[in-house]
Amino acid sequence: FESALKACCGEGEPYNFNLAHMCSAATSVCKDPSKYANWDGIHLTEKAYEWMAHGFVNG
Questions:
Q1: Which one of 15, 18, 31, 53 has the lowest number of neighbouring Cβ atoms within 10 Å?
Q2: Residues with pLDDT less than 70, the chain
Q3: Which is a Pfam family this sequence falls into (predicted)?
Q4: Alpha-helical runs (H) found in 1-59
Q5: Are 10 and 42 spatial neighbours (Cβ–Cβ below 8 Å)?
Q6: Pairing of strands 9-10, 28-29
Q7: How far apart are CA 33 and CA 12, in angstroms?
Q8: Domain range spanning residue 52?
Q9: pTM of the model
Q10: Domain count, the chain
Q11: Residue 40: which residues within 8 A CB-CB, separation 6 or more?
């Protein structure tokens, strides 16, 4: 992952997360979510869930 802590969708530094301004049409979204583990400061990205599932299934 390019960034494990910075959210792909949101606003605010240093982690692109602001509880008062969650991911919405008014916030920015990263160009490639597969390079991020964190989607919006609360939820993970599809790629992060895929990575976790692969670990559970394949050890």
A1: 31
A2: none
A3: Lipase_GDSL
A4: 46-58
A5: no
A6: antiparallel
A7: 18
A8: 3-58
A9: 0.85
A10: 1
A11: 7, 8, 9, 10, 17, 22, 23
